[in-house]
Design goal:
single chain, alpha+beta, five-stranded mixed β-sheet, 5 helices, about 35% helix, globular
């Protein structure tokens, strides 16, 4: 029996399920990046506890550059085998350049503004990582439904 997934399912005022599933790499290779109910529940939790509060604080759109990844997609993009993206626990985010405040001039600055605010103001995160490859910067944020599992790790990671 097939289960219907409403891709336009609204998690909060500013986020819908499809934002976590969109992947140019999956589309290019014909990979169905379809989560199970448990993944959707975890993505909703991440949205409620981390993404929506950040969106409301900055009053700027947040782009999810990588959300849920099925195992095949995760391997294709070079994700680690135990990636939180595969479990529906994580998202990589950016604020699109056209929405940056005038005082911010680089992706690195914008990522650091997000990261520091989230680190200092979100009580329920597992990992906050400033990730970058070359001059491209983003914030990886994750959160467990069982809040006692959240490690409150915050650090920077350069991707090869």
């Amino acid at each position: 029996m097939k289960t219907f997934i409403d891709l336009h399912q609204r998690f909060t005022e500013h986020f819908v399920l499809s934002e976590f599933l969109t992947s140019p790499m999956a589309e290019k290779h014909g990979i169905p990046n379809i989560p199970l109910k448990r993944h959707i529940d975890r993505l909703r939790n991440l949205t409620l506890r981390c993404l929506e509060p950040t969106r409301q604080r900055f009053n700027l759109p947040i782009q999810i550059t990588s959300g849920y990844r099925c195992e095949m997609l995760n391997r294709l993009v070079g994700g680690v085998p135990n990636s939180q993206h595969v479990e529906g626990l994580a998202a990589d985010i950016q604020i699109p350049r056209r929405h940056w405040p005038f005082s911010v001039t680089t992706e690195e600055q914008m990522a650091r503004v997000l990261w520091y605010w989230m680190k200092d103001n979100l009580p329920d995160y597992d990992q906050l990582i400033i990730e970058h490859r070359g001059s491209s910067y983003w914030v990886h944020v994750s959160c467990h439904i069982n809040l006692r599992m959240n490690r409150h790790q915050a650090f920077e990671l350069e991707k090869k």
